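Thread: quick sanity check before group meeting

JM: Hey all, I'm pulling together slides for Thursday and realized we never actually wrote out the predicted structure for the chain we discussed last week. Dropping the sequence here so it's in one place. If anyone has concerns about the input, flag it before I start.
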Amino acid sequence: MKSETVHRSGNFGFLAEHDSLFVELAEAAERAFSSDPNTTLIKLRQLGEAMAQHLAALCVIEFDEQTSQSDLLYDAFKDLYNGQYNEAAVAKITGQSDKVDQLIRRYKNERYPNIAITVDLLTTGIDVPHICKM
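JM (edit): ok, ran it. Output follows.
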């Protein structure tokens, strides 16, 4: 049986102190970058999900396999700011959001919301200069 050599770039070693899965996913994305961009995107998505779940666990936010990624990130945001934020400023916008075009228009034309929690929505080509956090 041929043993497979895993190339370690050293770019993601700093993640090991948090979770070795982070290193594994980041390095897999890096290895696939030039030959298979779709795999890179999948691995980066998995990395983002793993990091969000790790953060939620650190914040003692309850979640399970039914919890959407956007809900998990929104709950982490609320926990991070301990309720001390303008609720009108924050909106989740996902591929499953009702009236996505209307919500994007609100970001473009109104003062609030100006913080976007976005998952499963292609943001390329959306120009909303006054979004302060995404």
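AS: nice. The mean pLDDT is 82. The longest strand covers residues 90-94.
JM: adding both to the slides.
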